[in-house]
TrEMBL record:
InterPro entries: FAD/NAD-bd_sf, GMC_OxRtase_C. It comes from Paenibacillus lycopersici. SUPFAM superfamilies: FAD-linked reductases, C-terminal domain, FAD/NAD(P)-binding domain. It comes from the Bacteria. This is GMC family oxidoreductase. Keywords: FAD, Flavoprotein, Oxidoreductase. GO terms for molecular function: oxidoreductase activity, acting on CH-OH group of donors.
Amino acid sequence: MATKLPKVPIVIVGMGWVGGIIAAELTKAGHSVVGLERGKSRNTQDYYHVHDELRYASRYELMQDLSKETVTFRNTSKQRALPMRSYGSFLLGDGLGGAGVHWNGQYYRFLPYDFEIRSKTIERYGANKIPDGMTIRDWGITYDQLEPYYVKFEQMAGIGGEPTTPANVGAMSKAFPVGPMKKTPAMKLFEDSAKKLGYHPYIIPSANLTEVYKNPDGIERAPCQYCGYCERFGCEYGAKSDPVVTVLPVAQQSGKLDLRTHSNVTEILHDGKRATGVRYINTPTGEEYIQPADVVILSSYLFSNVRLLLLSKLGTPYDPNTDTGSVGRNYAYQVNGASTNVVYEDREFNMAMGAGALGSSFDDFNGDNFDHADLKFLHGANIRFTQTGLRPIQFQPAPAGTPKWGAEFKKQTLHYANRTLTVAAQGSSMPWRHHYLDLDPEYKDALGLPLIRLTFDFEDQDRELVKYIAARTKEIADGMGGTKTEMHDSIKQYNIVPYQSTHNTGGTIMGSDPKTSVVNNYLQMWDAENVFICGASTFSHNSGFNPTATVGAMAYRAADGIAKYLAKPGPLA
């Protein structure tokens, strides 16, 4: 029997970047908020012994327990989906701060093209350029509308970057609050080669602080130590901007946040038109609670947002056969695989040192910054060289043809560990009618609830993109003065292993048509006006960039929308 708790004004489900930002903004405005986080609490003291590659990078200390809840996967609807039993393609964070704790800190705004991708593509190339089955659409918001919220995120997080950005990236109304990261010798080789080819490289904007910084909320933090333990790790210095050291302390210090960890939400309660609250389980005790609320905010990771809506029967599930419904539509991933290794016999680099966002990149082949008229794909990729800290267990480079084990393998990997640089690309991912999320009819979690099912595969669009972009990475690599280069220019069938990217998007997409989108441009749900759904699940495709900047900017805009709704309930225009 569930215990019914006293009604509260606002309940937030998931306390990562999105939940933390919204909680901070609403509590600063005087609103009382209940924050429900299914994982445990965390702070910087938990990471004093974090430099343990085996524990965190290989055994996934900060990640979700897949024996209790996971994702099932298949390439097509004709296949039987099987559960991901061990971590592979992507990493699902768990605990206070969510994936915001174990990210690298690479910060990119999406391009203006991204937000109006359908109309801009048709305007330049005609409607026939969009292949049958590709479901790209305008987001219902423009870059200029979102730009002030990018600024808010940057000022809060202390994003560091160059004073000006290239012309082929969106204009900035305010410079980054601190300067860029250091430029390593390898970064200079990459930039010099790119410039000689006429491209426009820049140091990657970084959420790893580059100097002591106090943000507008009065949170002061120390700079990055370039230790190389960012992705899959928490930062013991608090230098990497994450929710636990930035926005959550603001909300907690307000006295208006009731933060409840170990609280796993299993259902949104509603009457068909409005949410009335949520049902959750205290994971250590198994006790069940009902938390009534005036406003429900979903701010969990993509798979959890979609799954919770489907479990709650809130919104219309997407049906790929009829192309109707909205919840689960437009799943998109990230298309990687285009890269070139540069091997040096007469020079070594210190590849163990680095930072999650240490590197340089350029966008001359991202978005629609280049002519696609004669190409068999849309969008493109951010091309970059990063020096994120290559640790000994997982980084074992060797030339093609080297045995995969034994004495020769050891000899070659030791020799090339600091003699191999990689020019890589992070490619966009377009949505397709047959790529979607739904509930698995067979597999269930530890509570007996259906798991989320992912149906996805790479398309000819993706293979053509990788082939084209790989040739661009080789151009850069060939100019970096190495002994030889090795290009990788193909991808085949998508599989749930090995690791590729944690940048999943879609499933509760935003738009202007309630029939084909779940939320409006304030992330307010069409089918229940007092429900707001935030995070990368609202993206209708994925860019050639990391999604965190846009996730954060949209969270700030949603917080404005929620404040307007609290003052005057009703649909937001």
